[in-house]
Specification:
The structure holds two protein chains of two kinds.
Chain A lengths: L2 H23 L6 E7 L1 E5 L2 E10 L2 E4 L5 E6 L6 E2 L4 E5 L4 H49 L4 H48 L1 E3 L4 E6 L6 E2 L6 E4 L4 E8 L11 E6 L7 E8 L9 E8 L11 E7 L3 E8 L4 E3 L2 E8 L2 E6 L1 E5 L4 E6 L6 E6 L9 E3 L9
Helix pairs in contact in A: 2-3
Chain B lengths: L3 H8 L1 H39 L3 E4 L13 E2 L2 H6 L4 E17 L6 E11 L12 E2 L8 E5 L9 E4 L2 E9 L10 E5 H10 L2 H12 L12 H9 L4 E2 L1 E6 L5 H11 L3 E4 H12 L1 H32 L1 H9 L4 H30 L11 H27 L9
Parallel strand pairs in B: 4-9, 6-8
Antiparallel strand pairs in B: 1-11, 1-12, 2-10, 3-4, 3-7, 3-11, 5-8, 6-9, 7-8
Helix pairs in contact in B: 1-11, 2-8, 2-9, 2-11, 9-12, 11-12
The chains are: A alpha+beta, B alpha+beta.
Chain lengths: 391, 402
């Protein structure tokens, strides 16, 4: 056999070998590659993630009680205000005149009382005079010095004076009541006048100035909005599926969209009683642990609520948990073939570890990643990783 | 008896092998083209398989969600869950769009055409397997990306108004057009689909505000309410339904069509829509090209063998002169032709297998195609050698001495 022939045969074998290797490992006949991982026991840091917007817990929309025109506005957005400070005033129209008029009326009623008092005094004096004249005539009549007719005339004079006293005292009472009425009127008009002034109910910050002088607003339409900056919290929307373990007082981490690299500590302050039925979300209010500088209302925030840590929990990578016919389970290798093993799975943490309640023991190997959807009895090849991590 | 064919090949083996390799590359191109065609059909099939659905519930009178736009209210899924025969139903949105990511190392922006899929974790529509990373656990701004997108784990991908973090990678998750898929939570996907960009939002608000019907001075709050209603969307493109074991797909689909006023497609119907309608012309185009390429390859193989024999006319004449039988000469030519075909097929299969993963779209090389290709190549070589044999047998032995 010539050397050349041997060489050629060797070359032929080499080519055939490469061909066979390529066909069985690279093409459609290659075995499905999978990776394995063990179920491990350890502490699981559990958490719930949600998105929210910054809102003030106490927000005051100041509005006039009557439809009116805005007279003047004394503050602008961002101004710090004190409780009781005048922020805006509606145009009073004729209210000032009505206040003056009612005050005048109240004053006038004072004089009416004095007139009535004087009239009463005069009537009382007339009663006194008429009584003594009558007594004197009555003594003379007993002696027969005057006629009966004269005595009768005096009696009538006395009775008339008594009636005048009654009338004058009634007039005085009426004047007194009149004074009470006019004073009440004046105070009522004054209160109406005070309603046109919008005062700050709290020490806070003006967040909105929604009308300008000269604009007419209807009753109840907000002109100025004031919030309490200490009451800013994140109104967080949590998927109802994950919201079951959230409790008031749990710590949270807040990342504001404007400060994406900063994690601000917070705490769950309130869980709202009514959830959102359409979006299937629960609303959880998370307060900042310290006042967040530069936070603006309406800003988007990412909230991660930390749930109590689970000690000694059996877990597998979340990618290993699959569902077949609504049954949770994992794929395991048995004698080189894949099999589906049903398990009872619990929550999945934010790091992607899934809690295993039952169905697996510590150290059991499960298939995590695969190049194709697995079917029972499939032949697979175990590799370390399917995708080379990019540096 | 010595093997004449072998001796002849050994005599000019370099030429023979290189002719074989050249032929092989041509066969490789033909096999690849068959793979392109198969891959195209497979892209459509794999999308149906990966959705994990038995029924597609879409808008009435549409061929949605892949072949035509379709929009359905997202509470339909809950209605469907209550019907008998239905095990599970999941809302899904599909949107073909441009995703971009900034490479951290170089700062370059890279754009990829993707099909954005919004799904509910744990419901039909979720990718059935991952090759790296973990499933989506946060309810917002996490994404699973197909390997073909080129995105890596931990990379931030910009989709319209938000950045999404790639937390898991999938493989072979493509649209019927071959665009790789990116999976994000349903609510985010609805926002991407309907909320557009900030400029559009502001313009839309201004348009509403300038409409006197919505902006009424004596009804404070009306404008805000109208604007709020414009920025929420509760539409999805399809509801994927998984049937309970033993339920009849056609029966359940018929019930949905009749009573829910929606269109429902079974798996077979969806395959028909995708393969017979959506990719029909483009796949036919590729198939025509494959046919022509196969014919051209066959012709070239025939010519090569024919000319190879013609080049050896003098040697054949000598063989005849020394008394070689017709059978000896024919078998030599046939063996050489088949040998050439064998080398060609091996080189072709090898090259097609090796360069197939480099293609941007999926190339499916089926073993059946390779086997039928092998027999076709051998048949072509045998047929081509008949012409060469005829020419060889007709040669006059006198030619040997000129």
């Amino acid at each position: 056999m010539s050397k050349l022939k041997i060489k050629l045969i060797a070359l032929g074998l080499l080519v055939t070998g490469i061909f066979a290797w390529v066909v069985t490992t690279q093409g459609p006949l290659a075995a499905i590659k999978v990776t394995l991982d063990k179920a491990t026991t350890g502490a699981l840091n559990n958490g719930v993630f949600g998105m929210g917007t910054l809102e003030a817990r106490h927000s005051y929309n100041l509005a006039p009680t009557l439809t009116s025109r805005v007279g003047r506005i004394l503050v602008d957005q961002g101004d710090r205000v004190r409780a009781g400070q005048l922020l805006a005033e509606m145009d009073a129209v004729d209210l000032n005149d009505r206040v003056t008029s009612s005050q005048q009326a109240a004053e006038r009623s004072q004089y009416a009382i004095r007139v009535a008092e004087a009239q009463l005094a005069e009537a009382q004096s007339r009663v006194k005079t008429a009584s003594s004249a009558y007594t004197r005539l009555a003594e003379l009549r007993e002696g027969g010095y005057v006629s009966q007719e004269m005595l009768d005339a005096k009696l009538h004079e006395k009775n008339a004076a008594l009636a005048a006293v009654a009338s004058a005292s009634a007039a005085l009472s009426s004047a007194r009541l009149d004074q009470v009425r006019t004073q009440a009127d004046a105070s009522g008009i004054g209160k109406l006048r005070a309603q046109t002034r919008l005062l700050s109910p709290i020490d806070g910050i003006v967040t909105a100035r929604l009308a300008e002088p000269g604009v007419t607003v209807v009753a109840g339409q907000t002109v100025i909005q004031v919030i309490d900056p200490k009451s800013i919290w994140v109104k967080t929307r949590i998927d109802q599926k994950h919201a079951g373990l959230v409790r008031v007082g749990q710590p949270a981490e807040i990342v504001l969209r404007s400060q994406a690299n900063k994690v601000l500590p917070g705490v769950v302050k309130r869980i709202e009683q009514i959830g959102d039925a359409i979006t299937e979300e629960r609303i959880v209010n998370v307060e900042f642990a310290a006042t967040a500088a530069g936070a603006m209302l309406g800003e988007l925030a990412e909230v991660t609520i930390k749930l109590p840590q689970l000690e000694k929990a059996l877990s597998i990578p979340g990618a290993a948990l699959k569902q077949r016919e609504k049954q949770d389970g994992v794929w395991v290798l048995q004698g080189g073939q894949v099999q589906f093993r049903p398990v009872q799975a619990g929550l999945t943490t934010l790091e992607g570890r899934t809690l295993i309640v039952s169905g697996l023991a510590e150290g059991d190997e499960v298939i995590v990643y695969s190049q194709q959807q697995l079917r029972p009895g499939m032949k697979v090849k175990v590799v370390k990783e399917l995708v080379k991590a990019k540096p | 008896m010595i093997n004449l064919a072998g001796r002849d090949i050994l005599h000019g083996w370099g030429k023979f092998v290189f002719t074989g390799i050249g032929l092989g590359l041509l066969i490789g191109v033909t096999l690849t083209m068959a793979g392109v065609y198969r891959g195209m059909v497979d892209d459509a099939n794999v999308m149906i398989d990966n959705s994990g659905a038995d029924l597609w519930v879409v808008q009435q009178d549409t061929l949605g969600p892949y072949a035509e736009p379709s929009s359905v209210r997202d509470d339909v899924a809950r209605d469907l869950l209550g019907r008998s025969g239905i095990l599970d139903a999941g809302n899904v949105t599909y949107l073909t769009m441009q995703a971009s990511a900034v490479k951290q190392a170089t700062g370059q922006r890279r754009e990829v055409r993707v099909m954005l899929v919004g799904f509910e974790p744990g419901k039909p529509g979720e990718p059935a397997y991952l090759v790296a990373g973990r499933p989506i656990v946060r309810s917002h701004y996490e994404a699973l990306a197909d390997l073909k997108t080129g995105f890596a784990l931990g990379e931030k991908v910009r989709l319209r108004r938000h950045d999404y973090t790639v937390v898991g990678l999938t493989q072979r998750m493509v649209s019927s057009g071959g665009d790789p898929m990116i999976f994000i939570p349903l609510q985010d996907a609805q926002e991407v689909q309907f909320l557009k960009d900030n400029d559009a939002l502001i313009n839309e608000r201004a348009r509403t505000a300038s409409n006197p019907a919505f902006n009424r001075p004596n009804v404070p709050g009306l404008l805000e309410a109208v604007q709020a209603s414009q920025t929420t969307s509760h539409f999805v493109n399809t509801v994927l339904v998984r049937l309970a074991p033993g339920a009849d797909a056609e029966e359940v689909a018929g019930e949905i069509r009749r009573w829910k006023h929606l269109q429902a497609y079974t798996r077979a119907q969806m395959e028909e829509i995708l393969i017979a309608r959506l990719i029909a012309t483009s796949s036919k185009q590729i198939f025509m090209f494959l046919v022509i390429l196969a014919i051209v390859s066959a012709a070239i193989v025939a010519f090569i063998i024919y000319t190879m024999t013609l080049n050896k006319m003098r040697e054949i004449a000598v063989l005849k002169l020394i008394g070689a039988t017709n059978q000896t000469i024919s078998s030599m030519i046939l063996q050489q032709a088949l040998g050439l075909g064998l080398i060609g097929f091996m080189v072709g299969k090898l090259s097609a297998t090796l360069w197939a993963p480099l293609f941007p779209k999926y190339i499916l090389l089926l073993p059946e195609d390779a086997i039928s290709g092998f027999f076709l190549v051998m048949l072509m070589c045998a047929l081509a050698s008949i012409f060469a044999i005829r020419a060889a047998l007709r040669v006059d032995p006198a030619n040997a001495i000129g």
